[in-house]
Amino acid sequence: MASPYEAGSARSYARVAVLGVGLLGGSFALAARRRGLAREGVGYAKSPSTLNAALAAGVSHNLSRLPLVVALFFAGAFAMRGAGCTWNDITDRDLDAKVERTRSRPIPAGQVSVPQALTFLIIQALIGLLVLLQFNRFAVATGIASLVIVAAYPFMKRITWWPQVVLGLAFSWGALMGFAVTLGRIDATALVLYAGSIAWVIGYDTIYAHQDAEDDALIGVKSTARLFGAHTQQALIVFYALAVVLIGAALKLAGAGYPAWIGLAAFAAHLAWQIRRLKIGDPALCLRIFKSNRDAGLLLFAGLLADAVMAAV
């Protein structure tokens, strides 16, 4: 079947950056996926940077800049996760061509050439830099430091069974950015929230990775999905529980009020539901559960935002 995207078209470029940017109940939706940092339906509203911005606003008892910070985070994440995804598609083009679900992506399908994709990556990176320069110097340095991890991530699946850890380090960097932007520092609260976010990413990206477990085994791609195998649900109990405990510890350090704890309880209940519902042999179900993490993040974000509002009044 002919692709609906013509070579070099604007739509093909858009698919390189975001396959699945949407809106969820008026929230910004931007996705994270295993072979790219901005795909397939995990909502931006649960982004660590947004969660941390809300938590930091509660700590500072100042909501005046929160709407602007969230808007800038959205713009920056849109550009930089698009750039990260483009980088992943460039580095993974040979692997993607061997997997049924990914071989129709623009680069392996020949719709966009590698030089064209590189040009597109540079444009997105420059947009991200422009957004980053709106923040303080400490936040700028913190943002630039993340590029090392983002650049290394695509190669991890070739050398370690734990590429999801590196993805967690990259995607959760926003947990540090929220405090860097709002408070001009990274303290224990930010670091604990960062660790909790990493555990969450390892869990939900393991679910995502089960979609391609069979193809990955054939082409030699490593993942926690293949590592855990039939014991995935037990592993998810460990990582999701760790995420809840660490995020709870961050709330405690921040002196969060009861709305934040209600949000955390709802978040934990959603994670438990995911574990009960999961069937690793059903790729379509794995994708639905993976995408449902945007709802889990919205529950947590709503609690943090409500707490920040109460702390500011």
UniProtKB/TrEMBL annotation:
GO cellular component: plasma membrane
Membrane topology: Multi-pass membrane protein
EC number(s) from the headed UniProt entry: 2.5.1.-
Predominant subcellular localization, coarse grouping: membrane
Pfam families found in the cross-reference section: UbiA
Transmembrane segments: 12-32, 53-79, 114-133, 138-155, 161-183, 235-252, 258-275
Compartments, record wording: Membrane
GO biological process: ubiquinone biosynthetic process
Cofactor(s) listed in the protein's UniProt record: Mg(2+)
A GO molecular-function descriptor: prenyltransferase activity
CDD domains per the UniProt record, alphabetical: PT_UbiA_COQ2 (cd13959)
Primary enzyme class: transferase
Sorted UniProt keywords: Membrane, Transferase, Transmembrane, Transmembrane helix
InterPro entries: HB_polyprenyltransferase-like, NAD(P)-bd_dom_sf, Prenyltransferase, UbiA_prenyltransferase, UbiA_prenylTrfase_CS, UbiA_sf
HAMAP family assigned: UbiA
NCBIfam families reported in the protein's UniProt record: ubiA_proteo
UniProt similarity note: Belongs to the UbiA prenyltransferase family.
Official protein name in the record: 4-hydroxybenzoate octaprenyltransferase
Upper taxonomic lineage: unclassified sequences, metagenomes, ecological metagenomes
Name of the gene this protein is made from: ubiA_10
